[in-house]
Amino acid sequence: MRRFPLAAAAAAFLLVLLPLATAATTSGGKSPPTSTTAAKAKAPAPAPAPPNVTALMSKGGCKAFASLVTKSPDALSSFQSAVGGGVTAFCPTDDAVRAFMPSYKNLSDDGKASLLLFHAVPVYYTLRGLKSSNGPMNTLATDGSSRNYNFTVQNVGDQVSIRTEASDAVAKVRSTVYDKDPVAIYAVDTVLEPVELFEPVEAPAPAPAPVADAPKASKRGARHRPKHVADAPGPAVDDDAADGDQRKNAKKNKAPGGGQSTRWLAAITAAVAVAAAVLV
Ligand SMILES: *[C@@H]1O[C@H](CO)[C@@H](O)[C@H](O)[C@H]1NC(C)=O
Ligand SMILES: *[C@@H]1O[C@H](CO)[C@@H](O)[C@H](O)[C@H]1NC(C)=O
Ligand SMILES: *[C@@H]1O[C@H](CO)[C@@H](O)[C@H](O)[C@H]1NC(C)=O
């Protein structure tokens, strides 16, 4: 008969623990839902509409590029969904796009989308941040390791330039079209050519070689159906962007209450073990 109070105590202990554990699990480790009305009152006002990237580009001297983005559903949706997490776009000027149109028209729809998404990185960079970010960067066209679609930022003096392996010419940042955290748009004077779509300049280019290789390159792009999921900045970006303000919108450290739930489960298990030991 002496066991009964102990068992009752263990049961009471569990009864107290369980609701707490449930609360911790459902609230994901955030503050417990003491009062829903108070929580509602404190909820922030709905976020302002995200900036319209294509409209901003059009206004800033990149009307032709914005128009190409608008006509590519894959590119447009990827640009739009990237805006919230931070994005820096490099839009070629209208002259640059005009000169590039014959090559652009040769690309498949996937190739077009990839080329357009190649002109933005999924990180917000101020001009100052760019100037301290020499090195390779992943773009919105990057998708895992099979679709590198990276370019190289190189700074000479005060001039920010972008280089790819597919072109001798560097694209120079000419002006700031828009800069308001988390979105920056800079105008560049040349269309960026990803080496995934255009022959690298290093390759010796006797007449037959490019003709034989060019269709292969676009077929390769078409076979891998691009998802155009904006990757988090890859290791390349991490290495170079560790300092400065460019990392400030990497709000990726929202650790959900997983750890806490696990701890609660461990506590319950321990309590049950104690109760069992007492009852036996
Ligand atoms: C963005 O602006 C363009 C005009 O430049 C307009 O056609 C488009 O509907 C706008 N998109 C959104 C999502 O408001
Ligand atoms: C477009 O593709 C055709 C056939 O592959 C090729 O002959 C032509 O040179 C290409 N034009 C441009 C501008 O790349
Ligand atoms: C960039 O892309 C090229 C070509 O796909 C690849 O060879 C290279 O490893 C990539 N560099 C980085 C730093 O990801």
Relevant terms:
single chain; 280 residues; alpha+beta; FAS1 domain; 7-stranded mixed sheet; 11 helices; 7 strands; 46% helix; binds 2-acetamido-2-deoxy-beta-D-glucopyranose; signal; GPI-anchor; lipoprotein
Describe what this molecule looks like in 3D.
Residues 24-50, 205-260 are annotated as: Disordered. This protein has helices at residues 3-26, 36-42, 53-59, 63-71, 73-83, 94-105, 109-117, 127-131, 208-223, 235-240, 258-279, and strands at residues 87-92, 120-121, 135-138, 150-156, 159-163, 171-180, 183-188. It is α+β, with helices and mostly antiparallel strands. The chain has a domain at 53-188: FAS1 domain (Roll), CATH 2.30.180.10. The protein has a 7-stranded mixed sheet with strand order 2-1-7-6-5-4-3. The longest helix is centred in the N-terminal third of the chain and has 24 residues, at 3-26. The two termini are 13 Å apart. Mean pLDDT is 73; it is low at 4-39, 208-260 and 271-276. Bound molecules: 2-acetamido-2-deoxy-beta-D-glucopyranose (3 copies).
Helix content: 40-55%
CATH superfamily of the domain at 53-188: FAS1 domain
Biggest sheet character: 7 strands, mixed
| Topology as a string of helices (H) and strands (E) | HHHHHEHHEHEEEEEHHH
Bound compounds, each kind once, are: 2-acetamido-2-deoxy-beta-D-glucopyranose
Q: What percentage of amino acids are in beta strands?
A: 5-15%
Estimated structural class:
alpha+beta
In CATH, what is the class of the domain at 53-188?
Mainly Beta
CATH architecture of the domain at 53-188: Roll
**Count, helices:** 11
Shape: globular
Summarize model confidence as the mean pLDDT: 73
Biased composition (Low complexity): 24-44
Main location: membrane
Function: May be a cell surface adhesion protein.
Subcellular location: Cell membrane
